[in-house]
Amino acid sequence: MSKIIKKTNLRVSGLISDLKTASRENDVKIWRDIALRLSRPTRNYTELNLSKINRHTCEDETIIVPGKVLASGTLEHKVNVVALGFSKSAKEKIVEKGGSCLTIEQLVKENPSGSNVRIMQ
Question: What pTM, to 2 d.p., does this model score?
Fold first, then answer.
């Protein structure tokens, strides 16, 4: 007998539902992909350091992290980061370089087509 596991965080379960709806309405696969990544167990969420973001991004790029952004390392260029959560110091470092920190909900409202967004894991 298999056990059905439900998300206890209401924000995440609502976000997963909203992402699936946005994917269907706009015919955009990126939101469905993010929803599936957030449907996994919390211990499997991405935790990404600024050093990795710095190495794998270009100036003014928009990336989405289906998890949390941590402050280890430095950021040498402006980048727009969208994530489920940010550590306080990571947010400060990103804004200090002229970048922006958005939640996934904000990005879906601002850019429903999901264009020019790259997923980092």
Answer: 0.90
